[in-house]
Amino acid sequence: xxxxxxxxxxxxxxxxxxxxxxxxxxxxxxxxxxxxxxxxxxxxxxxxxxxxxxxxxxxxxxxxxxxxxxxxxxxxxxxxxxxxxxxxxxxxxxxxxxxxxxxxxxxxxxxxxxxxxxxxxxxxxxxxx
Length: 129
Known about the structure:
By secondary structure, this protein is an alpha/beta fold. The protein has helices at residues 65-74, 92-103, 111-120, 122-128; strands at 3-6, 9-12, 17-21, 31-39, 44-50, 55-61, 79-82, 85-88. Helices cover 30% and strands 34% of the residues.
């Protein structure tokens, strides 16, 4: 069973976008896998962290989407802070763009999720065209 953790808060400044997990950090070393997926049932994007033996799923719920949009528009690699571990989220832009563009107009993800993504990422999608 994979561990699931949620982003609790975000900080956006001119120089960086940082996401925070406010749970006890894992004992093992973790690194950014460079992979994202969707959890359309829970209306979330999920970034995978690699422990070397398993993955930890980091859930970006709807409340984090404004920061995700900002990260795409600023083209800054966001940081993830979990306890003392701080890491850049490798391939974040490429993975998120691929998912958002694939979800746009695609009801295979469910109409509610598609609509939420289209509304939240409207500006980012428009600037990409």
